[in-house]
Each structure stands twice: as C-alpha cells, then as structure tokens.
Write a structure and sequence with these properties.
Helices cover about 45% and strands about 10% of the residues. The protein has a three-stranded antiparallel beta sheet. A three-stranded antiparallel beta sheet has the order 4-8-9. The chain has a three-stranded antiparallel beta sheet with strand order 5-6-7, covered by helices on one side. The radius of gyration is 36 Å and the shape is elongated. It has 16 helices and nine strands. By secondary structure, the chain is mostly helical. A hairpin with a 6-residue loop joins strand 6 and strand 7. The chain folds into three domains: about 100 residues, no CATH class; about 70 residues, no CATH class; about 110 residues, no CATH class.
C-alpha cells in the first residue's frame, strides 16, 4: 500500500509514529499471559522474549516497513514481487489490498500516537520486535535530516517544513545569515499581523539589514517591492539609521564629514600622514527636490521658496541644459594596507570645469 504523498493523513501518522512493526494479531500482553502466565514481559528470560516476539509476528496480519525510501504498510504474506501488467500504473499485491478490510488497520489509523516528547513513556517491549523501528522512532530528527528538501517539496507543505526545520536546527543555513534574518523578519511580521499589533519596532538581524540597505542603494523601487512582498525596514528608517551611525554624508564641504573620518582614525590610534585627493565620476542626469533645495543641477544645490519658484528653476535648467552629469568626489586616504578610502564630499561639477575652479575647491578642503 503506497504511502500517500499528498496531505499528512492519519495513515501516514500511523506509519511514522507506531512504536511496533507487526499488527493485526492479539495484544502482546495477552499472548504473554497465555504463554508464560504473566504479563510482566520484563521478567522473562531472553529465550522466552524471543518466543514471545516470534508468536507476535506469527499472529500478525500486516506490518509497517520503514526501511525503504517510501515507508509503507504490507501484508505479512506480501512476496515483494508483484506480477504487473503494462497498463497498471500502481500495481499492488493482492494480499496487501486485503489489508484495507482488516479492522485492526482502521483501529491503528484512528489511534493517537506518542509524539517526540511523550515517546519516552512507551514501553520498550512494544518496540523490541524490530530494533530498527525503535532507533528510527527515537532518532526521528536524524531521519528528517536524511531527507532531501527537493523531495520534501513534492510531498506537501507540512512535510517540507518539518525537513526544513530539522536542517535549520542542524545548522545547514548558518552560512546564509541574510536568509536567516529574512526568515526571522517574515515570521515576526506574520505573528504581529495576526495578533493585530503594529509593525513599528520590529527587530531585524544586522546581516539582513545590511542586505536591505544595499538593495535600496541599488534600486529603491526593488527594495520597496521586496519589503512589501516579504519584510524589511522602511526607507525612512534606513535613512535614520544611516544618519545615526554616521553612514551619511552631510551636504557640501561640511566639517562634520571630516570629523567623522578623524574619529575613525583616532580610534585606530593613527597619527601618520594623510593623502587628500579628488576624482570626477559620471552620474545619471536627474533632478530631485529635497528639503527645500533642488538637487541635480550643475554647481551647488538650488534653494526654492515656492512651487512656482521650483517650476521656474526647473524650466531654466532644462532650457540651459545645465543638468549635472559629473560628480567630484573628495577623498582622504591613509597610506596603510587594510584601511579604506574615505569620501568626505560629493560635489556637482560643471561641464567645463577649469583648473582654477578645481584648485579653489581643493584649498577649501585643505
């Protein structure tokens, strides 16, 4: 009788959780009483225990086989060799089909079995007939680890999550810290939403936070779609963290940018020489209104006082084609290995920037 590969059913629970292998005969304690005038199986000698197990097997009508890739129920008379025709999709041995009518199977399927916490209370004698079954039940976690996640996806969601949880507990995903953070974030957000709680103050793993900030830097729209689909910090929250952790440059040639680099070098106890330089890089031509300034034109950010003022400035920039197409990055370098180059200012460059203008800016930096 092949195991159902759909939803987890009572039949599969019987196969997975039954402490004994052989079924269909009289209860084991009744056989023990008839043979040895006692129900205390622990008091039997090894010879009598073997005789008891042999009688249990002899009276059984069906058994559970857990040795194969697909655990299943078979008739005791099953020959394991099925005469099948080519048009039969799932051939089953006749004696195994008759097990469907066995009342003991129905009783076993409807029985509540011990779980991982209560299995220690099951009498050891019930599992003595098949040592492998005992080890398999007591080492269920090992059995889950032996399963393939890809195979588990074909056996239904519940089976997949059991295998996934076992592999996660075994540390199979420890090298994927952003993924672990994502799973935690989705689980916490789902729990809060079901409890009707707000999503403010949700904790995020640092590795997942770093991944989301990198994604937002590459594509804000992509980060927004990712957060709406799964979980993550709002862009506003990311900017607040960047400002709090001194990860954001102040506009123009601000003294605070230099102080940030100075504090890092002081923490490293560095008192040696520094190299100050600048480099020009190409940027995407675009305009953006930010905190009362229009950003993206050549030269400094342009302040505007009203919507009409913003409209006039924008039209003038478009007419004069004075979009900023290049940025000049001013940097501080430490001539030692392992220390990165620090950017202290990003300034919009004019298309026809001359040497005199560059020298003036360098003098301000110095």
């Amino acid at each position: 009788m092949p195991r159902d590969t759909g939803k987890e059913t009572r039949l599969t629970e019987c196969i997975d959780n039954s402490p004994s292998t052989y079924h269909g005969g009289r209860p084991q304690h009744e056989i023990c009483l008839q043979l040895f005038n006692t129900t205390r199986e622990s008091s039997l000698s090894e010879t009598n225990k073997q005789l008891l197990q042999a009688t249990v097997v002899k009276e059984a009508t069906w058994e559970i086989q857990c040795h194969d890739v697909c655990p299943s129920i078979h008739s005791i008379k099953c020959s394991r060799c099925i005469p099948a025709r080519s048009n039969q999709k799932h051939p089953v041995f006749n004696h195994c089909l008759e097990v469907h009518k066995d009342g003991s199977l129905l009783a076993a399927v409807n029985m509540k079995y011990a779980d991982d916490d209560s299995i220690r209370f099951v009498r050891k004698d019930l599992m003595a007939a098949e040592p492998f079954q005992e080890k398999w039940r007591l080492s269920k976690q090992v059995n889950l680890l032996a399963k393939s996640l890809e195979r588990a996806t074909k056996q239904g969601d519940l089976n997949f999550w059991k295998v996934f949880a076992a592999q996660a507990e075994a540390g199979k995903f420890d090298d994927h810290e952003p993924f672990i953070g994502l799973v935690m974030a989705v689980a916490i957000q789902n729990e809060r939403e079901k409890l009707g709680k707000a999503l403010t103050g949700v904790p995020f793993a640092p590795e997942f936070d770093a991944f989301m900030m990198t994604l937002a830097a590459i594509s804000p729209g992509g980060a927004l779609f990712f957060r709406q689909t799964f979980a993550g910090r709002l862009l506003r929250s990311q900017r607040q963290i960047q400002a709090k952790n001194s990860l954001q440059l102040a506009d123009e040639l601000a003294l605070i940018n230099f102080k940030q680099v100075s504090s890092i070098l002081e923490a490293l106890n560095y008192t040696g020489p520094l190299a100050v330089s600048s480099d020009q890089t190409v940027c995407l031509k675009s305009l953006q209104a930010r905190n009362g300034f229009l950003v993206g034109a050549q030269g400094d950010d342009i302040k505007f006082d009203s919507e009409e003022d913003l409209k006039e400035i924008t039209e003038r920039i478009i007419m004069n084609k004075s979009f900023c197409s290049k940025l000049r990055a001013h940097t501080i370098q430490v001539p030692l290995p392992g220390i990165p180059t620090y950017v202290v200012a990003l300034l919009a460059s004019n298309d026809k920037e001359n040497a005199t203008k560059i020298i003036e800016t360098h003098q301000k930096v110095l």
